[in-house]
Amino acid sequence: MTNENKKYSSGDVSRRDFLRTSSLAVGGAVIGSLSAERGAHAASDDTIKVALIGCGGRGTGAASQALSTEGSVRLIAMADVFDGHLQSKLEVLQKEAKDKVDVPKDRQFIGFDAYKDAIALADLVILTTPPGIRPIHFEEAVRQGKNIFMEKPVAVDGPGIRRVIAAAQEAKKKNLKIGVGLQRRHETPYLETIKRLHNGAIGDITSMRCYWNGSTPWVHTRESLAKQFGRPLTEMEYQLKNWYYFVWLCGDHIVEQHIHNLDVINWVKNGYPVKARGMGGCEVRKGNDYGEIFDHHSVEFEYADGSILHSMCRHQPGCWNSVSEHVVGTKGRCHVGGDRGGHRIEGENAWSFPRGTPTKNPYQQEHDDLFAAIRDDKPYNEAERGAMSTLTAILGRMATYSGKEITFDQALNSQVDHLPKIFAWDAPAPVQPNPDGSYNLPIPGNAEWLKKIV
Ligand SMILES: NC(=O)c1ccc[n+]([C@@H]2O[C@H](COP(=O)([O-])OP(=O)(O)OC[C@H]3O[C@@H](n4cnc5c(N)ncnc54)[C@H](O)[C@@H]3O)[C@@H](O)[C@H]2O)c1
Questions:
Q1: Is 181 in the pocket of ligand 1 (CB under 6 A)?
Q2: What's this model's pTM, rounded to 2 decimal places?
Q3: Residue 29 above 80 pLDDT?
Q4: Domain of 442, in residue numbers
Q5: Which segments of 221-331 are extended strands (E)?
Q6: Which of 380, 413, 436 is a domain's end point?
Q7: 196 C-alpha vs ligand 1 centroid, how far in Å?
Q8: Strand 308-315 vs strand 322-329: parallel, antiparallel, or unpaired?
Q9: Judging by beta carbons within 10 Å of its beta carbon (0-12, 13-18, 19+), is residue 315 exposed, middle or buried?
Q10: Do 40 and 67 touch, CB atoms closer than 8 A?
Q11: Looking at the structure, do residues 82 and 106 belong to the same domain, yes or no?
């Protein structure tokens, strides 16, 4: 929190001062950093009005962190496709921050188009649906001139990434502030470690490793959902409820989880890989409830300087686990972060982040940073970087699903669009189960599958 920002947060700033500092002339038009609309039509105070779109676990966390930033913040609208999700999370947030939650019935929006109404009411929107939907919501929030916090990943395929990049550029022109939930970028021990790497502590970085090896996340069986609903679900309902296991919604766990570790390596390298090759499959996590994703991926990413990142991610219980990043350089090595002794440099410039140093929760820090940028009207746009790291993970998935060497440009320019043509509960989901309830998994090396992958 900067001193400058404290001035605005403490409530001792006049309304006129606040509007002056939160507006910027861009190309002759006045664009507010609260939102384009409020920049043009003066608001009544310095409260930042927040709308939550995607009322699940992370959305609730993000809303709570937004409400915990300095200055006046109110949650004023919520949107979800399932009313039950919205109601249960509204209750949680009301218990946690009663005075800051003001979401009456007429600001609760349900359905596939609910996001538009919620966005319209806010200065800042939190986009926390499954990632496949993100490009649509991000585009709309930018179109409406709103500041945005969106969770990672920001898309699940090349067409989605291109939409996000285009909207990110538009957001820059509109002076919108955009945060992306890659919270390690705001975590002090990571910042301190990577600053040293960028200053040459281990020389040129020649090889990298990173992992997200863990166990299987939540799953909802068709039977348990039918019991909950009191009827069998449509395929679209089922896939939305069980989104983790469908590529069009989740991107596979290499995209949904492992993006964090891949993003750290991109950050260390100050760049993105140029190609990837790998292998993967579904060996242990068998059964119709687990959709169409792999349970392990192992990928070699090659960067422009020829250095190789070996990445692994696995959802298999009882195996060697780690969520961490490590790099080797010409003058030493570094355990960049995560378990297995992270934030530690070995070699001639040996160093480690002092154990026990109090640091702020990175989820809170990323919101503090975004809200400070809004109040101080400082440039803040993490969207493109979030898109490029998301694309890195998508590239890895394309390599393991296809069994081919795939370039970054191929991934970026891919025409394979996983989203459904129509969003409705009775519309066809983009993938269909077989008569026995199973879903087809990609077959690496298969020419027919290749067309669905790259
Ligand atoms: N940064 C992190 O460490 C971190 C941690 C957890 C999750 N996440 C990310 O947050 C996002 C959400 O994850 P989660 O764990 O909260 O999932 P979740 O299933 O708990 O919540 C997602 C919510 O979005 C709703 N939704 C789905 N489609 C929608 C649509 N079209 N319009 C409106 N609402 C819709 C769902 O009904 C659900 O309530 C994912 O992208 C995930 O990767 C990030």
A1: yes
A2: 0.93
A3: no
A4: 185-358+389-453
A5: 275-281, 296-302, 308-315, 322-329
A6: 380
A7: 34
A8: unpaired
A9: buried
A10: no
A11: yes
